[in-house]
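so i finally got all the pieces together for this one. its two components total, 315 residues if u count the protein bits. some of the lines might not be protein, just check the labels. i wanna see the whole assembly predicted at once instead of chain by chain like last time, that was a mess tbh
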Amino acid sequence: MSAGWAVVLAVGVGTVGLKAVGPVGVAGRRLPARVTDLLALVAPAILAALVVTETFAAGRSLVFDARIAGLLAGIAAVALRLPLWAIVVAGAIATAAVRLIT
Amino acid sequence: MRRGVRLGAPLFPAAAALGASFGVLARTAHLDALAAVVMSATTFAGSAQVAAVSVLGAGGGVVAAVFAALLLNVRYAPIGITVAHAFRGGLLQRLVESQLVVDESWALSGGGGKRFDRRVLLGVGVTLYVAWVGGTAVGALAGQAIGDPSKFGLDGAFAALFTALLAAQLRGRSPIAVAGAGAVIAALLIPFTPPGVPIIAATAAVLLGWRRA
């Protein structure tokens, strides 16, 4: 099995399980507020790390290349409150354009 | 349920467009079109899917890709618990219906509060599901027609997309502090660890929130 299919199946099964925890598993019980507050902070931590690695990582080295243009275009598009798909397109176009001229 | 479909309809184009983006981006991880569609149909959670293909595409390996994606979906455990009381019927019915819980369907149906309506959640969820899986199929087939993904700046598109997903999370001081710490941890570790490890290690930033709580 390829690495891609292994990820697809593992993430699929895991997510089905996580979504089922409430409606199938527990009924009527609630987690302590402290725990849910902490779980809510996992997403910002991971997303921030993904922004950094997607922009600056190339294997084990920090590099500064055309992807920085993609990041800056993304920040600008977020500031302009563009829809999500437009933010993605802006990032791709900026990266491709800088790569073309450098 | 019809009310849910109506509430979800304005989100249909956005979800389809984002699904198409995911389908194209999956190409950077060398996922074929079928794998991309199967992932959208089973996982049905945008940020986790994009995280998985980006880590895999960057050479982070299967374990790091799965870890990053599932951590982004851990929130569905507490979210599901807030609406658990409204689900009825047998095990299979509840299992199927629970898969339609996503951020948008949960929020539009009252977020598990007093006015929560399970049928609205299911209506919004079905609408988004069709848009997401259909969009992925279109994008994945387009992505397969593309040669080298970096030529079209797809690697830079990830940075932009994660920026947008992050911005939506930054309400209040704790998330901003945790995001800043997570970014610093990841940047410091990139030269010293294999790809994937910086992302996993960045979750330690959550401990900042523990002290503030």
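The longest strand of chain A covers residues 57-58.
The mean pLDDT of chain A is 89.
anyway lmk what u think
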